[in-house]
Amino acid sequence: MTVNRYRCQLHHSAHERRLETHPLTWWLRDDGECVGLGEYVAKDGYAVVRQVLGHQGPDEVIETLKAANIRGRGGGGFSAGVKWSLTLKGENLPRGYLLCNADEMEPGTFKDRLLLEQVPHLLLESMILGGYANDSFYGYIFLRGEYVEAARAISRAIEEARAAGWLGRDIAGSGFDFDIALHTGAGRYICGEETALINSLEGQRANPRAKPPFPGQSGAWGKPSVVNNVETLCNVPAVLRFGADWYQQLSGERSDDGGTKLYGVSGKVRRTGLWELPMGTPAGELLDRAGGMHDGCTLKTWLPGGGSTGFLLPEHLDLALDFNTVAQAGSRLGTGILTLVADDQSMVSLVRNLEEFFARESCGWCTPCRDGLPWAVKLLRALERGEGIPGDIELLEELAEDQGPGKTFCAHAPGAAMPLASAIEYFRDEFERGIAHPGKDDVMPERPLSANGERGDAER
Ligand SMILES: Cc1cc2nc3c(=O)[nH]c(=O)nc-3n(C[C@H](O)[C@H](O)[C@H](O)COP(=O)(O)O)c2cc1C
Ligand code: SF4
C-alpha cells in the first residue's frame, strides 16, 4: 500500500552533501525515510559521544562551544556556549535538565521538523553532549503535538539508543548517567517561549515566567535547566568533532556568524523546501534556488524568518541572512524560513490573518498583548471590508508601539507587532484603501475605545 505522507523537502541530494560542509543534513537519506540507529552508527554517529565523554571535561566542551559561537536557531540568536557557561553547576548543586525546544509553531516554519522526522539520533547525540556539558541528569524533548511522525521517529530512536547503551547509566563507560523523554505539547504557540515551555512541562498553565531567575539558575522543577532549539543542538556534535575554527569558517566571507543554516522558502514560488547553506546566504540566492516566483507573480515583500518577523522589500534580497544584518535592516532573522509574498496578495488580509493567530495565542498575562492584539484584529477586519475610519491606521501604529520590546513579559507581543508595523510602513497605501470615504451627509461611526468596541460600532 502506498502511504501518502507530507515530507519536508531538502533540496540537496546525498552526493551534494558532506559532513564537513553540511553538518546538519549530511546524515539524511534521499528517500526521506528516517535514519535508524544502525545506519546512523555506520556513518560514525555517536562517535563524538565516545570521543568526548570521560576524555574532555564539561568546561572544555563549553569553551569549544563558546569559541564556535553557535547562535540560537530558535530565533533569538543567543550564543549556546555562553548560555551553557551560565548554567548553575557544581558539586554541591543539584543536577538539572536539558530541554530541547521542538515546539516549532512559528507561522511558515518547518525546519526542525526535517531533523526530528529524518535524523532523530543526531538530536539525541547532541542532547547527550549538552547534558554532559551542563551537568543535566535528564533531557526532555518538548515536541509540537501535531508532529505525529516526528513523535514516532523520536520514540523509536530513544528506545534504540537506550537498548544500545547510549542512554541510561554509565554511557559509553564514562560514568555519566543521562536519559531522555519525549513530551508532546497540546498545541499552544506560547509553549515555545522557554519559560512557558517549562511551566507546561511541569503540568502548569503555560504562562511565561518573569525573569530573573533565568532557567539556567532555576528552571524545570526549580532545577538549573538549559533550553535550546533543535537546530542549535544539532550543530554540537560536528563542532566538537571538527573544532570551533572549522565552524566559524563554514560561513566564509558571507557572515561574522559561523556555521550553516537550515534555510527554507514558502509562498508563491515554484519550489518550496529547505536548503542547508552557509550562514549569511542572501535571500536572493534562496529565491533563485526556489526557481523564482510562480508564473505571472512578482515578488512584493517577504518575511525573513516566520510570522513574528518584520516585512522586507525586494531591494533587501541581497542582504546576508544572518542575525545582525537582518536586524540592521529593521527585521529579525527569526527562524530563517522565508515567506515570499506576491504582488497580487493583500497586505491587509495577510496581516489580519497573522494577527488573528497572535491574538488567539496570547497567554493573556499582559494588557498590551491580551487586549491590544484582538483590538488590532478588529481594526484590520474593518479595513479589509473597506469600512475603516480615519485614524484607524494611526491607532494600529499606536497599538504596535505599545506591544514593542520591553513593554510585556515575553517576546510574543513584540513579535506580533513587527509584521503589523512594517506592513504599514511599507504598504500604507493598501491600508488607506480600507478607509471608507462617506458621502457628505453620512455620519461616521466613532473610533472604538477598546478591543470590545464599547464606543462605536459593535461589529467593528
Ligand atoms: C512566543 C514565542 C514562541 C517561541 N517558539 C519557539 C519555538 O517553537 N522553538 C524554539 O526553539 N524557540 C522558540 N522561541 C524562543 C525560545 O523562547 C528560546 O529563546 C529558544 O528556545 C532558545 O533556544 P536557542 O537559544 O537554541 O534558540 C519562542 C519565543 C517566543 C516568545
Ligand atoms: S506578551 Fe502576551 S504571551 Fe507574552 S506574557 Fe504577555 S500576554 Fe502572555
From TrEMBL:
GO terms for molecular function: 4 iron, 4 sulfur cluster binding; FMN binding; metal ion binding; NADH dehydrogenase (ubiquinone) activity. The keyword rRNA-binding does not apply. This is NADH-quinone oxidoreductase subunit F. Residues 437-460 are annotated as: Disordered. Gene3D superfamilies: 3.10.20.600, NADH-ubiquinone oxidoreductase 51kDa subunit, NADH-ubiquinone oxidoreductase 51kDa subunit, iron-sulphur binding domain. It comes from Litchfieldella anticariensis (strain DSM 16096 / CECT 5854 / CIP 108499 / LMG 22089 / FP35). Keywords: 4Fe-4S, Iron, Iron-sulfur, Metal-binding. Its cofactor is FMN; [4Fe-4S] cluster. Coiled coil: none annotated. Residues 348-393 form the NADH-ubiquinone oxidoreductase 51kDa subunit iron-sulphur binding domain. Belongs to the complex I 51 kDa subunit family. The keyword Iron applies.
